[in-house]
Structures are given as structure tokens and as C-alpha cells.
Write a structure and sequence with these properties.
Blueprint (H helix, E strand, L loop, with lengths): L1 H6 L3 H18 L9 H12 L15 H5 L19 H12 L4 H21 L6 H11 L16 H4 L9 E4 L5 E4 L3
Antiparallel strand pairs: 1-2
Length: about 190
Amino acid sequence: MVEHAKTIQDPQERLKAAKTIIEIMATLNPQLRQSGDFEHKLWDHLVIMSRFELQIEGPYPAPQPEDLDSKPERIPYPKHDIKYQHYGHLSQAFLDKASTLEEGAAKESLVRNVANHMKRAYLTWNKDNVDDQTIFDSVRELSEGKIEMGIDFDLEKNPEKLEDPKNQSAWKFKKKKKKQWVRKSNY
């Protein structure tokens, strides 16, 4: 069909044939209708299928052959200066914010939540138990001594509360007829 459309001399007839081809392409690929720019994609595909030889005035600018060969710009990887990567850069950011707050319930609540998150992150990467003093020392170090946590701070003690909910009970086994064990997924 595309080869035939390239041979049509009359521009109006050629455009009419191109629209017919676009309609057929849309019918054959109904999943494309879910994307917002599906018509634009179809017109681009038509031009590419014709090896850029189909001369039509479509509703969208035709792609150029060099556009297909060009590589996209490299997306820079976000760089964060993180001392302890297992805590993540957001822990550092929240501790920086907490160090600027005035003493009070809001600051204490933020520090407690960040410390509990740090304990969860520690347990995610290190399956050993972590004592609260390790987290307190890390908070002091990451806040450059501006935040001091003492014994009066009670972090979560229950490891079930600290684990990632997606990982809880991820491996539940059940017997099948042939005594095979299979993984039961929570998701």
C-alpha cells in the first residue's frame, strides 16, 4: 500500500491514500490509541516505511532520516555526596532540615522518624540487628554534631515493623500434589 501511494502523482489523492493507510494501521494496532500522540506516531511510521520517499503534507512534520540515527542526549546520573549510602540521600536531606528547626515537638518528631527510617535502611542492607546507639552515632555524624540523640529517644524495637512490607512473608510455601514447593507472591 505504501509503495502504491508513492506512485500516485496527484498530491490530494496521495494524501487521501496516506490517510487510508493510517486508518488501517490504527485498526491493526489498537493498543497505540492508549498513548496520547498515537496519530503522530502513525504518521511518522508511514514516512519511515516509505523510506522517506512519500511526499505528503500530513498534519505533523515528517521525521528526517538523520533523526533515526541520532542518539538521545545522555541523562546525567544524580550525584549526591552521601557518607553512608545505605541510609540514602533523603535521610541526609531530612537531617539537614531538622538541624535548622527550633527545639520542640516538630524537630523531635522529624528526628525520630528519620532515625527509624535509618534503622529500617540499615536492616535492609545489613541483616544483623542494629543497636540504637549505632543509629544515634550516625545521626550525630550526618548532622555534623547539630543533632544529639540520647537514651530518651526510643526507636522501634519490633523488627516486623521495621521490615519493608513487600518483603514480609514473601516466601510462603504450600504443597502441591507432587510435593513441589512454590513461591507464593504477595503482589
